Amino acid sequence: MAGAEWESLEQCLEKNLPPAELREVKRLLYGKETRKLELPSRASEAALEGDFELQGYAFEAAEEQLRRPRIVRVGLVQNRIPLPADAPVAKQVSAIHERIEVIAEVAAMCGVNIICFQEAWTMPFAFCTREKLPWTEFAESAEAGPTTRFCQKLAKKYDMVVVSPILERDEEHGDVLWNTAVVISSSGAVLGKTRKNHIPRVGDFNESTYYMEGNLGHPVFQTKFGRIAVNICYGRHHPLNWLMFSVNGAEIIFNPSATIGALSESLWPIEARNAAIANHCFTCAINRVGEEFFPNEFTSGDGKKAHHNFGYFYGSSYVAAPDSSRTPGLSRNRDGLLVAELNLNLCRQMSDIWNFKMTGRYEMYARELTEAVKPDYNPNIVKE
Amino acid sequence: MAGAEWESLEQCLEKNLPPAELREVKRLLYGKETRKLELPSRASEAALEGDFELQGYAFEAAEEQLRRPRIVRVGLVQNRIPLPADAPVAKQVSAIHERIEVIAEVAAMCGVNIICFQEAWTMPFAFCTREKLPWTEFAESAEAGPTTRFCQKLAKKYDMVVVSPILERDEEHGDVLWNTAVVISSSGAVLGKTRKNHIPRVGDFNESTYYMEGNLGHPVFQTKFGRIAVNICYGRHHPLNWLMFSVNGAEIIFNPSATIGALSESLWPIEARNAAIANHCFTCAINRVGEEFFPNEFTSGDGKKAHHNFGYFYGSSYVAAPDSSRTPGLSRNRDGLLVAELNLNLCRQMSDIWNFKMTGRYEMYARELTEAVKPDYNPNIVKE
């Protein structure tokens, strides 16, 4: 049942478990319960009309004397590609812009302050094909491409920070490609960009033939709603990637992704959540939804027959908190908007309780890693 | 229901979910299903007689042409302290030795090659009290103490590697204390020791008033059954600790722990499992069981009244594999022995599939961490 026919883990548990047992299962699986957010009815109606799921949850923090609650609402968007992958490039981009515009409007109704779209959101995830045209035509300038201009308009209109993960064409450096997230301030200005630091070489994720590992390090963006960072897709498997964003001060780390059931579905609830716990921050894991079919057949390096589809993107986007709690996931089979209200004070509160940054012994690890990467490194192995 | 009255997540799901839904929930929560091990009936009978749970599971790997399967059986032991914490020290130690001897014998019947006991297994977890006597009297020499001699006997008798986490008295260095795991070869020789690298300062975990952060780095022990390491308790919250054991070649990392429901139960299924995924190795998370009452009342730094008990140790020991699968947990309320059959070939197979060590960019992180720990570090924050 790894395809669309199964809606979500949460829905299954809610349906089948008696209330007392459900409470205990949720405590073990999701930590402290998140409060359901009351969202405006016109938002729910618009979501119904637009045929996408709308869910809202709130994380709370203890009251403090000297800091007021720092409340921010994030919006996570997961979606199918609205047109088939063999439609003309320009039409596909327009259709996806239109689709996202509808969802962003509902996000605005729900008071979302920071919205993040899925990885490479303007295009099908075509890197499985290893073909260059037409897919590389979806690449755009991070600073001045049509998608960035589209997001700037949204940002300004709704006073909303927009995180826009795209395929970037870097004209200033020999026209190379990058997997990039553009961060647009609520003022409408491009605040900056960050690049995917770790590139997969697994299954049909042939991205290493399109772009290289990011060269921008671990920037954190100070927005008026809080300090955010973007760990793109495969970077979530690398605990050090999350760590460095956190060391640089990120309070919310978005993880826009594109990943399929057969490969990663049992990893999905683990990794972003572990990162939220280990780094005393919020993490927002976003995955696309549905199946994408490509015009030319391709093989998957697994000895199986050539085929046209990449696999099933299982959605299930969620937000995890530093106190180990998390929201339920969006569904596995529908477009959706997840609204989460965060109190950013929770980050420092959890840090003061658990002290992982203080007990982390980073000097030791800097030293040990520096040694370990040397070609003549002699691992510490004790033998009889 | 954070106490003893609730047996386990798995038992609740098995009881309530229809078979098809159960299969899907397990796929999402536990990855690829682990095979139930057939254990000798005399082992089951002995476990019944000894009043402890016995479970067995096997993880499989693909066949290779040049390497034979590298099969190893590990045994994870979780238990209550058999005598109350106010019984005389020597009696408590004898009683726990006797209890463990019974469980180890059953482990031997089940063909266990490497057995690991819970953190500070010879004593109640008395560090909540902040009292020194009588608790520090449980400390022993790692090389020549009575508990090490006891484990050497077991190791030799059963041709079994024994991982024995104790409170260590280091007579060679000013009689200081350490939280240490002694690794005893199947030959009966002390192969070496490893020390808890990260010491908690959270809730009633007042261990920082007893011993300091370990000074032995990240040793890996080459046993005849495979390369093992020991990440003691609070070290599981630190992804870098797992990483360095793995960089040094560990195929199995044991995580002997002592942790309570109110603090960590929703973190428990996440952290060791994330480590197994991120580091392409097996991890074995072990927690003690039950409640421990101390003679003198103590407070918990939470504004609540003084009390005598530390909280509920929730057991739930489990093994996680590099392919993101895991065993069910032992129960939350009974002593238990979890036998897991591992095919260590799975580690390199998963590494070849996912490539996290290759795509990990450790040079970059060594450089970034080296900068980040400097007192005048300027975090990479982008402002408008």
Automatic annotation (TrEMBL), chains A, B:
Entry superkingdom: Eukaryota
UniProt keywords, alphabetically: Cytoplasm, Hydrolase, Phosphoprotein
CN hydrolase domain mapped to chain residues: 72-344
Metabolic or biological pathway: Amino-acid biosynthesis; beta-alanine biosynthesis
A cellular component annotation (GO) from this entry: cytoplasm
InterPro entries: Aliph_Amidase/BUP, C-N_Hydrolase, C-N_Hydrolase_sf
Protein's recorded name: Beta-ureidopropionase
